[in-house]
Amino acid sequence: IYMENTKIFLRWKICNFITGIIANGLMIVVNCSEWIRSRKLTCCDMILTSLGISRFFLQCTISSNNILSQLPQDMNELCAIFRIVTIFWMFLTTLNLWFATCLSVFYCVKIANFSQPLFLWLKRRISGLVPQLLMGSFLVSLVTCLPSVNTIDRKYIDNSMNNLSGNTTGECLYKVDLSSSFFILSMLGYTSPFIIFIISSILLITSLWRHSKRMEKTTSTSRDTVTEAHVRAIKGLISFIFFYISYFVALVIFLLELSTISSYYVWIVIMGAYPSGHSVILILGNPKLKRVAVRALHYAGCRLREAVS
């Protein structure tokens, strides 16, 4: 049973990796091609491109970590490489959360309708603030992850012991010190975008729901095209929230080492599904990306049928 579960887990990781690389690579290629062609990029596409790049490298970092974990960890050089990969993983994870939060805030400010002065001011300025938000997300992620360099360096220990032949074997171990101020700072880097994301998502869903109810009362038909579009947007946001919350919970449980051996693989699967699954949802909700994806799938299907025949 253990071997069978391991095989299923390995297939799932490979599927997540391939899906994530294709989906995020599609967002990067399409938006960068448009930027090269027209020398301009919309604010939404700018956020999507940044999110795609961070997730692309996050998928590569996770795959590198999986490869390193299968190698014999009996060399100091390997331990050092593993530590660097872990640091990159923490930075890209934080950056990914912040970019996803920027996307949620952008959608909330552009789509939702509230009469508060601060919200109206943001509505007028949000397009010009997008580059600053992205750069700020990068700097905040860097600042919150830099202290973990020293923390990881302290927690990687050489668990060596002499055997009968006189050789020395070692293993790279990593333990989290929950009382460490470095760890608390790192957790703030994870929880801050999560709180902002939840607030903006709730505001946006509330605004869309109210608008849908008003449209149903003012139109002769119970559901017009505008109302249907708002309902689809609400469903997309709910799936967005589901992926985000699941990933955040799994990340915290993984970092705090609260999972049991039986649930360890479940949390790893959830963490691996977020960068790929949510990117697929973003592509399906974006007409331009969806059109390119459909054409690419049609082309791939035709090539596959030709190869089979």
UniProtKB/TrEMBL annotation:
<feature type="transmembrane region" description="Helical">
    <location>
        <begin position="183"/>
        <end position="209"/>
    </location>
</feature>
<protein>
    <recommendedName>
        <fullName>Taste receptor type 2</fullName>
    </recommendedName>
</protein>
<dbReference type="GO" id="GO:0004930">
    <property type="term" value="F:G protein-coupled receptor activity"/>
</dbReference>
<feature type="transmembrane region" description="Helical">
    <location>
        <begin position="264"/>
        <end position="285"/>
    </location>
</feature>
<dbReference type="GO" id="GO:0033038">
    <property type="term" value="F:bitter taste receptor activity"/>
</dbReference>
<keyword id="KW-0812">Transmembrane</keyword>
<keyword id="KW-0675">Receptor</keyword>
<keyword id="KW-0297">G-protein coupled receptor</keyword>
<keyword id="KW-0716">Sensory transduction</keyword>
<feature type="transmembrane region" description="Helical">
    <location>
        <begin position="129"/>
        <end position="149"/>
    </location>
</feature>
<feature type="transmembrane region" description="Helical">
    <location>
        <begin position="80"/>
        <end position="109"/>
    </location>
</feature>
<dbReference type="InterPro" id="IPR017452">
    <property type="entry name" value="GPCR_Rhodpsn_7TM"/>
</dbReference>
<dbReference type="InterPro" id="IPR007960">
    <property type="entry name" value="TAS2R"/>
</dbReference>
<feature type="transmembrane region" description="Helical">
    <location>
        <begin position="237"/>
        <end position="258"/>
    </location>
</feature>
<keyword id="KW-0919">Taste</keyword>
<keyword id="KW-0472">Membrane</keyword>
<dbReference type="GO" id="GO:0016020">
    <property type="term" value="C:membrane"/>
</dbReference>
<dbReference type="Pfam" id="PF05296">
    <property type="entry name" value="TAS2R"/>
</dbReference>
<keyword id="KW-1133">Transmembrane helix</keyword>
<feature type="domain" description="G-protein coupled receptors family 1 profile">
    <location>
        <begin position="23"/>
        <end position="256"/>
    </location>
</feature>
<comment type="similarity">
    <text>Belongs to the G-protein coupled receptor T2R family.</text>
</comment>
<keyword id="KW-0807">Transducer</keyword>
<feature type="transmembrane region" description="Helical">
    <location>
        <begin position="12"/>
        <end position="30"/>
    </location>
</feature>
